[in-house]
Specification:
Radius of gyration: 19 Å
Number of strands: 2
Structural class: alpha+beta
Strand order of the largest sheet: 1-2
Order of helices and strands: HEHHEH
Helix content: 40-55%
Distance between the termini: 37 Å
Strand content: 15-25%
Shape: flat
Largest sheet: 2 strands, parallel
Number of helices: 4
């Protein structure tokens, strides 16, 4: 089963876009401590997962890295700007599709 799953991943087309939310280990631990969640991760588990995910390779035609150490509203604003940048075609909003095109 594992080999089959790996083969499927190899056959997937490359992603058009990728957004990576980058946050420091200290900030991740701080935020986790304020979360209200049953059986949430310990500080050590957050630190382990943070280290484990450093240096991963992502395959995408276009990648955006967002500094998520900032406040929620700033991060959200960056994400919205990225979304609009990806939606714009030659600096113009995309045309609405007619019923026949959708």
């Amino acid at each position: 089963m594992r080999n089959y799953e790996l083969q499927l991943y190899k056959e997937l087309p490359r992603a058009n876009g990728l957004i990576l939310l980058n946050v420091s280990m200290e900030e991740a631990i701080k935020r986790n401590r304020t979360r209200i969640k049953k059986d949430k991760e310990t500080d050590d588990e957050i630190a382990y997962r943070h280290k484990e995910n450093q240096g991963l390779y992502y395959s995408a035609n276009q990648a955006f890295v967002v500094d998520a150490n900032r406040d929620y509203e700033s991060v959200l604003k960056s994400l919205k700007l990225i979304a609009w940048e990806c939606l714009l075609v030659n600096g113009n909003r995309p045309q609405k599709l007619s019923v026949e095109q959708s």
